[in-house]
Amino acid sequence: EIVMIGKKLEGKKLAIIGAGGTGAYVLDFVAKTPVAQIHLYDKDGFRQHNAFRAPGAPSLAELQAKPSKVAYLKSIYEKMHRGIVVHEAFLTEENVEELRGLDFAFVCIDEGSDKKMIVGSTLKAKR
Can you give the pTM of this predicted structure? Predict the structure, then answer.
């Protein structure tokens, strides 16, 4: 039945907002599907404490390079998915419109007020 689920995702464009522990694992699953694009949003750097919460195991050299979370994750998952688009930014009221045109967004962030703004903005856009 996994083929039927994959067909539902085929050609879709989605976002993962927040590339920490939860967002990294969402990417791990989604990158293995036939979605057309995966937009990753996060401004934070990928550091040692992130490595303990993300799938896989970065090398010491990768950690010392201090990439952003989204750049590090793209470097890993672009080996299996060509449609990964990185946004080294947090979603704010100024850029939340970038979600327009996407089919789905996984909101994987901690801050409640930011979640409320993101969901509120996308609901307004649908009206």
Answer: 0.90
Judged by phi (left if over 0) then psi (alpha if -120 to 50, else beta), residue 85 lies in beta
Distance of alpha carbon 33 from alpha carbon 102, whole angstroms = 16
Encoded amino acid at 63, one letter: L
Give the separation between CA 66 and CA 61, rounded to whole angstroms: 9
Q: What is the pLDDT of residue 124?
A: 63
Q: Give 61-104 pLDDT, tens digit per residue.
A: 999 999 999 999 999 999 999 999 999 999 999 999 999 999 99
The Cα–Cα gap between 119 and 126 comes to 11
How far is it, in rounded angstroms, from Cα 22 to Cα 85? 18
Q: Give the three-class secondary structure for 63.
A: helix
User: What contacts 29, CB < 8 A, 6 or more positions away?
Assistant: none
104-107 sheet: strands from edge to edge: 84-87, 37-41, 13-17, 104-107
% of the chain exceeding 70 in pLDDT: 95
Alpha-carbon distances, residue 85 vs 27, 49, 124 (angstroms): 12, 24, 25
